[in-house]
Design a protein that fits this description.
Layout lengths: L1 E3 L2 E6 L10 H15 L5 E6 L10 H6 L5 H20 L4 E5 L2 E3 L1 H8 L2 E5 L3 E3 L12 H9 L1 H10 L3 E2 H6 L5 E3 L4 H14 L2 H13 L5 H16 L2 H17 L1
Parallel strand pairs: 2-3, 3-4, 4-6, 5-7, 6-9
Antiparallel strand pairs: 1-2, 7-8
Helix pairs in contact: 1-3, 3-4, 4-5, 5-6, 9-10
């Protein structure tokens, strides 16, 4: 975990394991997310060491737990679920920077983020069913991102998506060419970091609250958020700044 001015960064650092997720890694991820949520940074990036973003659960760790009691299995699964929930609850935007493979829980980690920026050679897949497993928690994000038909296709076949196809169905926000990936992804992070934190926090909170609301309730929640935003110093300063620019242009 590190911070560069208003940009925080969490780097998965198990390249020898293709950044596979085990209980320790999940707990460390949650702790880092919480620490950055309480820090002065305005945006958080998640990236990885080595050629792959994350190839999912650490199968050797799962093998060690094959005979563990059910409650222990539930507690182990909760660790990654806590990471997904933490990302969603954070006021700050969280951006996945995906190079190489993002498979299974790794694809879930990427899709749990608010924005996914993919290297042109990135690959995404949910192959759990092919080993008798279930892409259980990740389906919550996947269905919201790509819709039922695309989501069921992916979880029932385990097929691999290239970056452009992932973008075309809504799993990825943007795809950048290899030579431009670092520069352009950093540009997106800077743009997000420059937004007034109060406005970004209110936008993210309302954005995900709408998942639980009927249409008219969503409009009503938007009315309240609109009025609350007008009372913030950032809004008042922004309106005055743009009004001044318009007057100068006339």
């Amino acid at each position: 975990m590190s911070a560069d001015g208003p940009i925080g960064r969490i780097t998965l650092a198990r390249p020898e394991k293709k950044n596979a997720l085990d209980r320790v890694t999940a707990d460390e991820l949650a702790e880092a997310l919480f620490a950055l949520s309480e820090s002065p940074v305005n945006v958080v990036a998640i990236d990885a060491e080595g050629p792959d973003f994350c190839t999912g659960a650490d199968l050797s760790a799962l093998e060690d737990m094959l005979d563990a009691p059910r409650q222990e299995q539930i507690e182990d699964a909760k660790a990654l679920g806590h990471v997904f929930h933490t990302i969603r609850r954070m006021e700050k935007p969280v951006v996945a920077l995906v190079k190489g493979r993002a498979y299974a829980g790794g694809a879930g980690l990427a899709s749990a983020c608010d924005i996914v920026l993919a290297h042109e050679e990135a690959r995404f897949a949910y192959p759990e069913v092919t080993i008798g497993f279930v892409p259980a928690m990740v389906m919550t994000m996947l269905r919201r991102s790509v819709g039922e038909k695309h989501a069921f296709d992916l979880v029932s076949t385990g097929r691999v998506l290239k970056a452009e196809e992932a973008r075309s169905i809504g799993l990825v926000s943007r795809v950048f060419a290899a030579k431009d990936f670092d520069q352009l992804s950093q540009s997106v992070l800077r743009q997000l970091a420059e937004a007034p934190p109060s406005a970004m926090a209110a936008t993210k909170a309302l954005f995900y609250k709408l998942d639980m609301l009927a249409f008219i309730d969503g409009i009503s929640a938007g009315i309240v958020a609109n009025a609350d935003a007008r009372a913030t110093p950032a809004f008042r300063a922004g309106v005055k700044r743009f009004a001044s620019r318009n007057k100068d242009a006339q």
